[in-house]
Amino acid sequence: MNNNIFPCILCGGDAKKSADFYCELFNGKITVDTEVVINIELFGQKIMLLNGPQQEKNPSVSFMVICDTENEVQQYWDKLKEGGEVLMDLDAYPWSKKYGWIQDQYGVSWQLYLGEKASDQKLVPTLMFIHHNNGKAVEAIEFYTKVFPNSSIGNISKYEDGGESVENPEHVMHAHFTLNDYSLFCMDSSHDHQYDFNEGISMVVMTDGQEETDYFWNSLSAEGGNEEVCGWVKDKYGLSWQIFPKQSMKLVSDPDKDKVQKVLQAIMKMKNIIIKDLEEAYHS
Questions:
Q1: Where is the PhnB-like domain (predicted)?
Q2: Of 94, 102, 111, 166, which sees the most CB atoms within 10 A?
Q3: Alpha helix (H) ranges present in 182-274?
């Protein structure tokens, strides 16, 4: 399983509560536990939970959980429903005998789906292209698969294939693609949702060295994207990415808190992460 690409959920101050909830629900485990960052592993996949500025999550990025049995779907649904909000009723649909879309008590959206996996991944981030992005799902897939190595485009289902009359028949109802062997799904939606991509859920790319860091930073911010701070960048569709070198992760994981603080202060002043400058701060 590729763990160089993984999602990050911005939790405000609820990272530990969220981590405990998800690990209990999906039989996962906490692998990193700090005041700021908690990493969990669900179904062998990494998710970062970040205690940062409060940012409301929304269904523009959701997590599809591909289940083997109806009981498994029901079990997850019942727990997620506690304090949550149903977005699509748990029911039988043309694409699944048992499917539902729900937002949990922490604002994270989950699609529970009884069916066959498109890859080894049981949990798949799903991107919804809405408003000015509606109709650009295929364009986005092509953009992302050009940027990332070891990428491929899988099955693409158009709305005309599913008889969805309210949508443009040429738009994407469901598509699968992989970035460096990491699976994602996406879809177009013409509904006037009161939300869009934001920093609430981002994708992390762990890079190896400055050259690779610069490559992803420049590629994902190109063609109208935005350079943010602390290694964050928004692509031209508004999806947030964190480009962070593995070498720097070692520095911020050091047991010497004074050295870590110096590195974090240096990161706060950066946009793209410069490894050399962080190493200088570490040794200062």
A1: 4-112, 121-243
A2: 102
A3: 210-220, 246-252, 257-268
